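Internal tracking record. Fields below are filled automatically when a chain is submitted to the structure queue. Please do not edit lines marked as system-generated. If the sequence contains nonstandard residues, flag them in the REMARKS field before resubmitting.
Queue: standard
Priority: normal
Entity type: single polypeptide chain
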Amino acid sequence: MTGMPALSSGATNFTAISITLGIIFIIAGAIAVIVWSYFRLQRHRADAVAMAHYRKLAEEAVANQQELRAQLAELTAKVAAVEQLMREVG
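SYSTEM-GENERATED OUTPUT FOLLOWS
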């Protein structure tokens, strides 16, 4: 005989088991990294959409505030005119 143990003799081939487990762990790790990266990308996209909506809302708020200031200035001028008229009359 050649001196090699036969597979039917109950000997365990640890090299084959370790290579198989190593490949499985590498594939599982790669899948885990891919899934994690995908969900991180989705979270980033959602944040970008929310930020775009926030920017639009902020721009609208600034425009409305400027319009209100203009109306307030007109109202102040009209009140001043009414006060001047009341002083002249009474």
